[in-house]
Amino acid sequence: MNVKPASEAIISFQGVTKQYEGDPAVLKDVSFEIERGKFYTLLGPSGCGKTTILRLIAGFTEPTEGRIYFNGKVINHIPANKRQVNTVFQDYALFPHLNVFENVAFGLRIKKLKEAEIKEKVLEALRFVNLVGYENREINEMSGGQRQRVAIARAIVNRPEIILLDEPLSALDLKLRTEMQVELRELQRRLGITFIFVTHDQEEALAMSDEIFVLSEGVIQQSGTPMDIYDEPINRFVADFIGESNIVAGRMTQDFLVEFAGKTFDCVDQGLQPNEPVDIVIRPEDLEITRPEDGKLQVKVEAQLFRGVHFEIQCIDDAGNKWLVHSTRRADVGEAIGLTFDPEAIHVMRFNETEEEFDRRLEAYS
Ligand SMILES: Nc1ncnc2c1ncn2[C@@H]1O[C@H](COP(=O)(O)OP(=O)(O)OP(=O)(O)O)[C@@H](O)[C@H]1O
Ligand SMILES: [Mg+2]
Q: Are 198 and 273 contained in the same domain?
Protein backbone atom coordinates (compact mmCIF):
# COMPACT_ATOMS: atom_id res chain seq x y z
CA MET A 1 0.00 0.00 0.00
CA ASN A 2 1.56 3.31 -1.08
CA VAL A 3 -0.88 6.16 -0.64
CA LYS A 4 0.49 9.67 -0.39
CA PRO A 5 0.15 10.89 3.21
CA ALA A 6 -2.42 13.48 4.26
CA SER A 7 -0.92 16.99 4.22
CA GLU A 8 -1.25 17.53 7.97
CA ALA A 9 0.77 14.38 8.75
CA ILE A 10 4.27 15.11 10.04
CA ILE A 11 5.25 11.43 9.88
CA SER A 12 3.63 8.80 7.76
CA PHE A 13 4.45 5.09 7.46
CA GLN A 14 3.18 3.45 4.29
CA GLY A 15 3.41 -0.33 4.20
CA VAL A 16 6.58 -0.43 6.29
CA THR A 17 8.15 -3.83 6.88
CA LYS A 18 11.34 -4.35 8.86
CA GLN A 19 13.10 -7.66 8.72
CA TYR A 20 16.53 -8.66 9.97
CA GLU A 21 18.26 -11.29 7.88
CA GLY A 22 17.25 -14.83 8.69
CA ASP A 23 14.55 -13.73 11.18
CA PRO A 24 10.80 -13.32 10.79
CA ALA A 25 9.67 -9.72 10.13
CA VAL A 26 9.76 -7.46 13.19
CA LEU A 27 7.28 -4.99 11.65
CA LYS A 28 4.75 -6.29 9.14
CA ASP A 29 3.30 -3.90 6.54
CA VAL A 30 2.74 -1.13 9.09
CA SER A 31 0.91 2.04 8.01
CA PHE A 32 -0.02 5.00 10.18
CA GLU A 33 0.05 8.78 10.31
CA ILE A 34 1.29 11.10 13.02
CA GLU A 35 -0.19 14.59 13.13
CA ARG A 36 1.82 17.63 14.09
CA GLY A 37 1.76 18.84 17.69
CA LYS A 38 0.09 15.85 19.32
CA PHE A 39 1.19 13.39 21.99
CA TYR A 40 1.34 9.83 20.61
CA THR A 41 2.06 6.64 22.50
CA LEU A 42 3.25 3.30 21.13
CA LEU A 43 1.98 0.69 23.55
CA GLY A 44 2.63 -3.03 23.51
CA PRO A 45 4.40 -5.93 25.19
CA SER A 46 8.14 -6.51 25.10
CA GLY A 47 9.47 -7.35 21.64
CA CYS A 48 6.42 -6.11 19.68
CA GLY A 49 8.45 -3.56 17.71
CA LYS A 50 8.05 -0.25 19.59
CA THR A 51 11.73 0.68 19.67
CA THR A 52 12.08 -0.43 16.05
CA ILE A 53 9.45 2.13 15.00
CA LEU A 54 11.32 4.88 16.90
CA ARG A 55 14.63 3.85 15.34
CA LEU A 56 13.05 4.02 11.87
CA ILE A 57 11.70 7.52 12.58
CA ALA A 58 15.03 8.66 14.02
CA GLY A 59 16.95 7.22 11.06
CA PHE A 60 19.03 4.72 13.03
CA THR A 61 17.80 1.96 10.74
CA GLU A 62 16.06 1.69 7.34
CA PRO A 63 12.88 -0.18 6.42
CA THR A 64 13.16 -3.39 4.41
CA GLU A 65 10.02 -2.42 2.49
CA GLY A 66 7.64 0.52 2.36
CA ARG A 67 8.08 4.25 2.75
CA ILE A 68 8.51 6.66 5.60
CA TYR A 69 7.45 10.26 4.97
CA PHE A 70 8.39 13.37 6.93
CA ASN A 71 6.26 16.41 6.06
CA GLY A 72 5.21 14.67 2.85
CA LYS A 73 8.72 13.75 1.64
CA VAL A 74 10.18 10.23 1.62
CA ILE A 75 13.01 10.04 4.15
CA ASN A 76 13.97 6.34 3.93
CA HIS A 77 17.58 7.17 3.08
CA ILE A 78 18.00 10.45 4.96
CA PRO A 79 20.65 10.01 7.68
CA ALA A 80 19.75 10.51 11.35
CA ASN A 81 21.69 13.76 11.75
CA LYS A 82 19.72 15.37 8.89
CA ARG A 83 16.33 14.66 10.53
CA GLN A 84 14.42 17.13 12.71
CA VAL A 85 14.07 14.47 15.38
CA ASN A 86 15.58 14.00 18.84
CA THR A 87 15.47 10.95 21.06
CA VAL A 88 15.26 10.57 24.83
CA PHE A 89 16.56 7.11 25.68
CA GLN A 90 15.47 4.88 28.52
CA ASP A 91 18.81 5.24 30.32
CA TYR A 92 18.95 8.95 29.33
CA ALA A 93 22.45 8.43 27.80
CA LEU A 94 23.80 11.53 29.57
CA PHE A 95 27.55 12.22 29.63
CA PRO A 96 28.73 11.53 33.19
CA HIS A 97 31.90 13.60 32.83
CA LEU A 98 30.00 16.75 31.78
CA ASN A 99 27.92 18.99 34.03
CA VAL A 100 24.24 19.76 33.44
CA PHE A 101 24.91 22.81 31.27
CA GLU A 102 27.40 21.00 29.03
CA ASN A 103 25.15 17.97 28.65
CA VAL A 104 22.38 20.19 27.31
CA ALA A 105 24.83 22.28 25.26
CA PHE A 106 26.49 19.28 23.63
CA GLY A 107 24.58 19.27 20.32
CA LEU A 108 24.83 23.04 20.00
CA ARG A 109 28.61 22.92 20.38
CA ILE A 110 28.84 20.29 17.65
CA LYS A 111 26.88 22.70 15.45
CA LYS A 112 29.47 25.35 16.37
CA LEU A 113 26.98 27.96 17.55
CA LYS A 114 28.31 31.12 19.19
CA GLU A 115 28.85 30.99 22.95
CA ALA A 116 26.18 33.63 23.70
CA GLU A 117 23.62 31.78 21.62
CA ILE A 118 24.45 28.46 23.29
CA LYS A 119 24.00 30.02 26.71
CA GLU A 120 20.66 31.54 25.82
CA LYS A 121 19.31 28.30 24.34
CA VAL A 122 20.54 26.07 27.17
CA LEU A 123 19.07 28.33 29.83
CA GLU A 124 15.77 28.47 28.02
CA ALA A 125 15.66 24.65 27.82
CA LEU A 126 16.57 24.35 31.51
CA ARG A 127 13.82 26.84 32.35
CA PHE A 128 11.32 24.62 30.54
CA VAL A 129 12.20 21.65 32.73
CA ASN A 130 12.57 23.65 35.97
CA LEU A 131 16.32 23.16 36.35
CA VAL A 132 17.59 26.75 36.36
CA GLY A 133 20.29 26.98 39.02
CA TYR A 134 21.55 23.43 38.43
CA GLU A 135 23.82 24.33 35.49
CA ASN A 136 27.08 23.48 37.24
CA ARG A 137 25.96 20.27 38.93
CA GLU A 138 27.59 17.01 37.91
CA ILE A 139 25.24 14.37 36.51
CA ASN A 140 26.02 11.96 39.35
CA GLU A 141 24.85 14.61 41.83
CA MET A 142 21.37 14.62 40.28
CA SER A 143 18.39 12.44 41.29
CA GLY A 144 16.69 10.09 38.82
CA GLY A 145 13.90 12.59 38.13
CA GLN A 146 16.40 15.43 37.65
CA ARG A 147 18.47 13.36 35.22
CA GLN A 148 15.31 12.66 33.33
CA ARG A 149 14.73 16.42 33.05
CA VAL A 150 18.29 17.01 31.83
CA ALA A 151 17.72 14.41 29.12
CA ILE A 152 14.53 16.19 28.08
CA ALA A 153 16.23 19.61 28.12
CA ARG A 154 18.91 18.18 25.84
CA ALA A 155 16.24 16.88 23.47
CA ILE A 156 14.30 20.16 23.27
CA VAL A 157 17.25 22.56 23.11
CA ASN A 158 17.44 22.26 19.32
CA ARG A 159 13.67 22.71 18.94
CA PRO A 160 13.26 19.56 16.86
CA GLU A 161 9.93 18.94 15.16
CA ILE A 162 9.56 15.57 16.86
CA ILE A 163 10.78 14.15 20.15
CA LEU A 164 10.95 10.38 20.53
CA LEU A 165 10.84 9.02 24.08
CA ASP A 166 11.68 5.35 24.60
CA GLU A 167 10.29 4.27 28.00
CA PRO A 168 11.81 7.36 29.63
CA LEU A 169 10.02 6.89 32.96
CA SER A 170 10.64 3.21 33.58
CA ALA A 171 13.62 3.79 35.89
CA LEU A 172 11.62 6.00 38.27
CA ASP A 173 9.65 4.93 41.34
CA LEU A 174 5.87 5.03 41.12
CA LYS A 175 5.33 8.42 42.77
CA LEU A 176 7.99 10.22 40.76
CA ARG A 177 6.81 8.45 37.66
CA THR A 178 3.28 9.81 38.10
CA GLU A 179 4.65 13.32 38.67
CA MET A 180 6.83 13.09 35.55
CA GLN A 181 3.84 11.88 33.51
CA VAL A 182 1.99 15.11 34.34
CA GLU A 183 5.13 17.19 33.79
CA LEU A 184 5.92 15.65 30.40
CA ARG A 185 2.38 16.09 29.20
CA GLU A 186 2.41 19.76 30.30
CA LEU A 187 5.75 20.32 28.63
CA GLN A 188 4.50 18.85 25.37
CA ARG A 189 1.50 21.20 25.43
CA ARG A 190 3.66 24.26 26.12
CA LEU A 191 6.23 23.41 23.45
CA GLY A 192 3.73 22.25 20.83
CA ILE A 193 6.32 19.71 19.60
CA THR A 194 5.08 16.31 18.43
CA PHE A 195 5.93 13.66 21.04
CA ILE A 196 6.11 9.95 20.28
CA PHE A 197 6.33 8.12 23.55
CA VAL A 198 6.93 4.40 24.09
CA THR A 199 5.67 2.41 27.04
CA HIS A 200 4.41 -1.04 27.90
CA ASP A 201 2.39 0.43 30.78
CA GLN A 202 -1.23 0.76 29.71
CA GLU A 203 -2.24 3.14 32.51
CA GLU A 204 0.59 5.48 31.55
CA ALA A 205 -0.55 5.38 27.92
CA LEU A 206 -4.17 6.09 28.83
CA ALA A 207 -3.22 8.98 31.11
CA MET A 208 -0.84 10.80 28.79
CA SER A 209 -1.79 10.39 25.15
CA ASP A 210 -3.83 12.17 22.53
CA GLU A 211 -3.57 8.98 20.48
CA ILE A 212 -2.39 5.46 21.24
CA PHE A 213 -1.14 2.80 18.83
CA VAL A 214 -1.51 -0.64 20.37
CA LEU A 215 1.07 -3.01 18.91
CA SER A 216 1.53 -6.73 19.06
CA GLU A 217 3.95 -8.87 17.08
CA GLY A 218 4.86 -6.13 14.65
CA VAL A 219 1.28 -5.19 13.76
CA ILE A 220 -0.76 -2.19 14.90
CA GLN A 221 -3.80 -3.81 16.44
CA GLN A 222 -5.69 -0.59 17.08
CA SER A 223 -5.16 3.14 17.08
CA GLY A 224 -7.30 5.83 18.64
CA THR A 225 -7.84 8.10 21.60
CA PRO A 226 -7.44 6.55 25.06
CA MET A 227 -11.21 6.49 25.44
CA ASP A 228 -11.76 4.84 22.04
CA ILE A 229 -9.34 2.11 22.90
CA TYR A 230 -10.57 1.55 26.41
CA ASP A 231 -14.27 1.67 25.55
CA GLU A 232 -14.18 -0.08 22.20
CA PRO A 233 -11.33 -2.56 22.09
CA ILE A 234 -11.26 -4.05 18.66
CA ASN A 235 -10.11 -7.56 19.50
CA ARG A 236 -9.21 -9.91 22.31
CA PHE A 237 -5.58 -8.80 22.42
CA VAL A 238 -6.42 -5.12 22.90
CA ALA A 239 -9.18 -5.84 25.41
CA ASP A 240 -6.85 -8.03 27.41
CA PHE A 241 -3.90 -5.66 27.23
CA ILE A 242 -5.79 -2.45 28.07
CA GLY A 243 -7.32 -2.47 31.50
CA GLU A 244 -8.84 -5.45 33.22
CA SER A 245 -11.48 -7.27 31.28
CA ASN A 246 -13.88 -10.13 31.31
CA ILE A 247 -13.54 -11.91 27.98
CA VAL A 248 -15.88 -14.81 27.23
CA ALA A 249 -16.82 -16.70 24.10
CA GLY A 250 -20.20 -15.91 22.59
CA ARG A 251 -22.34 -16.00 19.47
CA MET A 252 -24.15 -13.18 17.68
CA THR A 253 -27.71 -14.49 17.40
CA GLN A 254 -28.84 -11.59 15.17
CA ASP A 255 -28.39 -7.80 15.13
CA PHE A 256 -28.67 -6.44 18.70
CA LEU A 257 -28.86 -9.90 20.29
CA VAL A 258 -25.91 -11.84 21.59
CA GLU A 259 -25.61 -15.15 23.39
CA PHE A 260 -23.07 -16.04 26.05
CA ALA A 261 -22.97 -17.89 29.35
CA GLY A 262 -25.94 -19.91 28.12
CA LYS A 263 -28.28 -16.90 27.83
CA THR A 264 -29.31 -14.27 25.29
CA PHE A 265 -28.78 -10.56 25.96
CA ASP A 266 -29.66 -7.26 24.29
CA CYS A 267 -26.62 -5.49 22.90
CA VAL A 268 -25.87 -2.49 20.67
CA ASP A 269 -23.85 -4.31 18.00
CA GLN A 270 -24.90 -5.09 14.48
CA GLY A 271 -23.51 -6.06 11.13
CA LEU A 272 -22.18 -9.50 11.98
CA GLN A 273 -23.29 -12.76 10.40
CA PRO A 274 -26.21 -14.53 12.12
CA ASN A 275 -24.75 -17.03 14.61
CA GLU A 276 -21.23 -15.75 14.06
CA PRO A 277 -18.90 -16.74 16.92
CA VAL A 278 -17.53 -13.69 18.76
CA ASP A 279 -15.54 -12.62 21.81
CA ILE A 280 -17.48 -10.69 24.44
CA VAL A 281 -15.83 -8.11 26.68
CA ILE A 282 -17.39 -6.57 29.78
CA ARG A 283 -15.27 -4.28 31.97
CA PRO A 284 -15.26 -5.16 35.70
CA GLU A 285 -16.56 -1.70 36.63
CA ASP A 286 -19.57 -2.16 34.32
CA LEU A 287 -20.87 -5.14 36.32
CA GLU A 288 -23.22 -4.35 39.17
CA ILE A 289 -24.00 -6.70 42.05
CA THR A 290 -27.67 -7.52 42.70
CA ARG A 291 -29.73 -10.13 44.51
CA PRO A 292 -29.52 -13.41 42.56
CA GLU A 293 -33.09 -13.15 41.27
CA ASP A 294 -32.54 -9.59 39.96
CA GLY A 295 -29.32 -10.39 38.05
CA LYS A 296 -28.90 -11.03 34.35
CA LEU A 297 -26.26 -13.56 35.38
CA GLN A 298 -26.24 -15.75 38.47
CA VAL A 299 -22.77 -16.34 39.90
CA LYS A 300 -20.96 -17.56 42.96
CA VAL A 301 -18.24 -15.51 44.68
CA GLU A 302 -14.87 -17.26 44.63
CA ALA A 303 -12.58 -14.55 46.01
CA GLN A 304 -12.68 -11.01 47.28
CA LEU A 305 -9.91 -8.44 47.59
CA PHE A 306 -10.15 -4.94 49.09
CA ARG A 307 -8.36 -2.51 46.75
CA GLY A 308 -8.79 0.74 48.66
CA VAL A 309 -11.28 2.42 46.34
CA HIS A 310 -13.28 -0.68 45.49
CA PHE A 311 -13.63 -4.39 46.11
CA GLU A 312 -12.32 -6.74 43.48
CA ILE A 313 -14.63 -9.72 43.43
CA GLN A 314 -14.00 -12.89 41.43
CA CYS A 315 -17.05 -14.94 40.53
CA ILE A 316 -17.95 -17.97 38.42
CA ASP A 317 -21.20 -18.64 36.56
CA ASP A 318 -22.91 -22.00 36.00
CA ALA A 319 -21.34 -22.34 32.56
CA GLY A 320 -17.89 -22.05 34.17
CA ASN A 321 -17.08 -18.51 32.97
CA LYS A 322 -15.08 -16.37 35.41
CA TRP A 323 -16.26 -12.82 36.08
CA LEU A 324 -14.24 -10.08 37.70
CA VAL A 325 -16.31 -7.32 39.36
CA HIS A 326 -15.18 -3.95 40.70
CA SER A 327 -17.72 -2.76 43.24
CA THR A 328 -17.97 -0.52 46.26
CA ARG A 329 -20.22 -3.23 47.69
CA ARG A 330 -18.63 -6.23 49.29
CA ALA A 331 -19.66 -9.83 48.69
CA ASP A 332 -18.49 -12.80 50.67
CA VAL A 333 -16.72 -15.86 49.39
CA GLY A 334 -19.26 -18.61 48.69
CA GLU A 335 -22.17 -16.15 48.42
CA ALA A 336 -24.61 -16.49 45.50
CA ILE A 337 -25.16 -13.11 43.84
CA GLY A 338 -26.61 -11.68 40.65
CA LEU A 339 -24.75 -9.51 38.14
CA THR A 340 -26.43 -6.93 35.96
CA PHE A 341 -25.10 -4.68 33.19
CA ASP A 342 -26.33 -2.32 30.48
CA PRO A 343 -26.50 -3.42 26.83
CA GLU A 344 -23.84 -0.74 26.11
CA ALA A 345 -21.46 -2.50 28.53
CA ILE A 346 -21.29 -5.54 26.24
CA HIS A 347 -18.50 -5.16 23.70
CA VAL A 348 -18.77 -7.62 20.86
CA MET A 349 -15.57 -8.40 18.99
CA ARG A 350 -15.24 -10.38 15.83
CA PHE A 351 -12.50 -13.02 16.02
CA ASN A 352 -9.15 -11.43 15.12
CA GLU A 353 -10.79 -8.59 13.24
CA THR A 354 -8.30 -6.00 12.05
CA GLU A 355 -8.84 -2.27 12.40
CA GLU A 356 -9.49 -1.84 8.66
CA GLU A 357 -12.15 -4.56 8.64
CA PHE A 358 -13.76 -3.03 11.72
CA ASP A 359 -13.90 0.44 10.10
CA ARG A 360 -15.40 -1.00 6.92
CA ARG A 361 -18.07 -2.81 8.92
CA LEU A 362 -18.97 0.39 10.81
CA GLU A 363 -19.05 2.44 7.60
CA ALA A 364 -21.41 -0.02 5.97
CA TYR A 365 -23.89 0.65 8.76
CA SER A 366 -23.65 4.41 9.14
N1 LIG B 1 19.44 -5.45 15.34
C2 LIG B 1 18.57 -6.44 15.45
N3 LIG B 1 18.77 -7.64 14.87
C4 LIG B 1 17.88 -8.65 14.96
N5 LIG B 1 16.71 -8.56 15.62
C6 LIG B 1 16.42 -7.40 16.22
C7 LIG B 1 17.33 -6.27 16.18
N8 LIG B 1 16.76 -5.26 16.85
C9 LIG B 1 15.57 -5.70 17.31
N10 LIG B 1 15.36 -7.00 16.93
C11 LIG B 1 14.17 -7.82 17.23
O12 LIG B 1 13.02 -7.10 16.85
C13 LIG B 1 11.93 -7.36 17.72
C14 LIG B 1 11.33 -6.06 18.19
O15 LIG B 1 12.28 -5.37 18.96
P16 LIG B 1 12.01 -3.95 19.60
O17 LIG B 1 13.24 -3.52 20.26
O18 LIG B 1 11.43 -3.04 18.58
O19 LIG B 1 10.88 -4.32 20.69
P20 LIG B 1 10.19 -3.41 21.80
O21 LIG B 1 8.74 -3.41 21.51
O22 LIG B 1 10.88 -2.09 21.88
O23 LIG B 1 10.43 -4.27 23.13
P24 LIG B 1 10.82 -3.80 24.64
O25 LIG B 1 9.53 -3.40 25.29
O26 LIG B 1 11.38 -5.06 25.23
O27 LIG B 1 11.81 -2.68 24.55
C28 LIG B 1 12.48 -8.23 18.84
O29 LIG B 1 12.13 -9.55 18.60
C30 LIG B 1 14.00 -8.04 18.72
O31 LIG B 1 14.67 -9.18 19.16
MG1 LIG C 1 12.07 -1.17 23.32
A: no
What is the mean pLDDT of the segment spanning 23-29?
A: 95
pLDDT the model gives residue 1: 44
Whole-prediction pTM: 0.86
Tell me, yes or no, whether 293 lies in a domain: yes
* 46 in contact with ligand 1, CB cutoff 6 A: yes
How remote is the CA of residue 89 from the centroid of ligand 2, in Å? 10
Show Cβ contacts of residue 22 under 8 Å, excluding neighbours closer than 6 positions: none
Model pLDDT for residues 123-140, shown as the tens digit of each residue: 999 998 889 999 999 999
Dihedral-angle region of residue 300 (phi above 0 means left; psi in -120 to 50 means alpha; beta otherwise) = beta
**CATH code for the domain in which residue 77 is found:** 3.40.50.300
Q: How many domains does the chain have?
A: 2
238 within a domain of the structure (yes/no)? no
Pair 55, 182 in one domain: yes
Domain end position, chosen among 197, 231, 265: 231
Q: Ligand 1: which atom is nearest the Cα of residue 61?
A: 1
User: Quick one: average pLDDT of 252-274?
Assistant: 93
199 Cβ closer than 6 Å to some ligand 1 atom = no
Strands 211-216 and 39-43: parallel
Do 184 and 250 fall within a single domain? Answer: no
- Residue 200 near ligand 1, beta carbon < 6 Å: yes
The residues, any chain, with a CB within 8 Å of residue 176's CB and separated by 6 or more, are: 144, 145
Q: Is 51 in the pocket of ligand 1 (CB under 6 A)?
A: yes
